[in-house]
Amino acid sequence: MTEDVTADVVVAGAGHNALIAAAYLARAGKQVVILDARSIPGGGVATEELVPGCFMDSCSTGHTLIQSNPVIRDDTLGLVAEHGLRYVDPDPVARVSFPDGEQIGMHLDPERTYAELARFSPVDADRYLTFLEQWDQAKTAFWASNNTPIGWGPSLDQLLDALPDGGVWRRRRSLSALEVIRHEFREEHVQAFLLWEACQTFGSVDLPGSGAMPYSIMGGRQARSWTIPLGGSGRLTDALVSVIERAGGVIHCSTRVDHLLLDGERCVGVAATDGRRFLARDAVLSTIHVKHLVDMAPRELWGSAFTYGVDTYDIGIPLFAVFLVMNEVPTFRGLRAEDTAVSSGLARWPHEVVEQIRDIRDRKPVTGSAWTLVATPSIVDPSRAPEGKHTVKLLVPCSHVAPYGHADWDAAKEQHADAMVDYVRTAMPNVEPSTIEARIVKSPLDIERGNPHMINGCAHGGDKGVPFSGPLRPAPGWATHRMPIAGLYQTGGTTHPGGSITGSPGRNAAMVLMADLGLDFPG
Predict the structure, then answer these.
(1) Mean pLDDT across the chain, nearest whole number?
(2) What is the Cα–Cα distance from 23 to 437, expressed in whole angstroms?
(3) Interhelix angle for 177-184 vs 188-198, to 10°?
(4) Cα angle, residue 303 at apex, residues 274 and 461 outer, rounded to 5°
(5) Sign, CA torsion 224/225/227/231
(6) Contact of 324 with 394, CB cutoff 8 Å
(7) 3-class secondary structure, 345
(8) Are strands 436-442 and 266-272 parallel, antiparallel or unpaired?
(9) CA gap 431, 54 in Å, rounded
């Protein structure tokens, strides 16, 4: 008979938000046990040896957004000072190619970025500097909102109202990213560049509620670049695991949760598919996708408001990834390898981006890519590949349904990978068979198989538009990290402020749970 495991807090899922929350709890003296279905912790914050000697970020690479979180900004968990986490800010920041062969490069020196934009429009270049100034005046309001649990402080609208131009910002954040960009900038290359940047978190940039994204992305990258951890995205996970284990916490990988354990109407633990039971004296903290979570207990216990919110929750836009090992840096036509940014790519014109996003939402097959990332972190981090080699990740949005008339993505993925590599070659001619030494393709099906939280290959926890943000995330009335079932808490990308590598859902959940347990939160 399998022996039960008992702890103060059982954490279901080991993504970076769950690990951040667990780290705070463990350092506060709570006995923490963490379970994850994958063979390694980290969720989307993982670096794997997909090819011998080559370490690739299986999902996230850029960590710019988490730099404003006190976990990193103030090193509240000692990840940097005590556990070896180190970040680098690559320069150039970005380089993007357009359908007509033109390119825009972005640099940490704003004057160099200004000069790039001014080649297309001096007026828009001037507007860009103003754009950055406007974000500098408003960013603390957004940071405060993101890093505070819902209901624990002023709402974002209240924080914005305190600004001299608060009414302007309330309108901006309610608009779509596309509307904001088209209002502020006129030249099509500049618009396409800013929209390419705004698409980094795979949101619907044509829908209301995405209006702050161009400001947030551009402001963060102009200040810090596409910040990456030395050694790979998984170094953040390694540092968090070190904090937890040093405080006595235990992590069980290859352990998939089957259902919640209930004592009446209270959650008292979880049962794993292998028959083991993990019992919680104080609480269960979940980072299981809410679409799966509701199936782990009788629906009547959740209540109709919660189940309706989950049933109508938009899981987002799927990803398609091609991992390459190359013996050269992917190099733009007419330029040198040194001009390639760690975060480079190909952009289509704004109307083409919108058309593709709408087709994806409408579940139409999509064969091209209106947004393409070419990430080469080994340019600034040689530890990721043997000398003379480079790790390259091609990332594109794709449809929930397979293209080319195939029945599913298993049948379509190699054909689509061929098409994506051929497309990248139009801007980077040396991405061709003689320079590609290895290739691994991950379709939406592969991504979900590797991480069940990423339903249909959607890696960002769900859309962050108006119906799915702030007090409405994941469901109206249940945005405080406390779930309808007593004793159960939720964190991760399905909670405020959403997905991507921010660490905010984890820190926010820790604040709520620690308060409920009578523990002081350290900052």
Answers:
(1) 96
(2) 40
(3) 150
(4) 60
(5) negative
(6) yes
(7) strand
(8) unpaired
(9) 18
Q: Helices marked H in 253-340 — which ranges? A: 290-293, 299-302, 304-311
Please say if the pLDDT value at position 523 is more than 80.
no
Distance CA 338, CA 361 (A): 38
pTM of the model: 0.96
- pLDDT, residue 131, reads 97
Given a contact cutoff of 8 angstroms between Cβ atoms, the answer to whether 77 and 27 are in contact is: yes
Whether the Cβ atoms of residue 481 and residue 343 lie closer than 8 Å to each other: no
Give pLDDT tens digits for 198-238.
999 899 999 999 999 999 999 999 999 999 999 999 999 99
Q: Which tokens belong to 75?
A: 């090193």
Gyration radius of the chain over CA positions: 22
Strands 32-35, 5-12: pairing kind: parallel
Residue 1 has pLDDT above 80, yes or no: no
Q: Which helix (H) or strand (E) holds 393?
A: strand 390-397
Sign of CA dihedral 401, 198, 65, 475: negative
Helix (H, G, I), strand (E, B) or coil at 263: strand
Q: Could you report the per-residue pLDDT of 266-310, keeping only the tens digit for each?
A: 999 999 999 999 999 999 999 999 999 999 999 999 999 999 999
The pLDDT score that the predictor gives to residue 3 is 81
Q: What is the pLDDT of residue 309?
A: 97
Handedness of CA 228, 231, 233, 238 (dihedral sign): negative
Query: Residue length, the chain?
Result: 523
Q: What does the block give as tokens for 17?
A: 């938000």
Contact 132, 218 (CB under 8 A): yes
Amino acid type, 164: P
Determine the CATH number of domain 5-48+59-86+232-313+461-516.
3.50.50.60
Of 321, 332, 353, residue with least CA distance to 92? 332
**Rounded to 5 degrees, what are φ and ψ at 25?**
-65, -45
CA distance 35 to 272: 9
Determine if residue 498 is left, alpha or beta; phi over 0 gives left, psi from -120 to 50 gives alpha, anything else beta.
left
SS in 3 state form for 9-21?
A: EEEECCEHHHHHH
Q: What would the pLDDT profile of 129-149 be if each residue is shown by its tens digit?
A: 999 999 999 999 999 999 999
What is the distance between the alpha carbons of residues 495 and 413, in angstroms, rounded to a whole number?
Answer: 31
Tokens in use for 490? Answer: 């939720």
Q: What is the percent of the chain where pLDDT is above 70?
A: 99
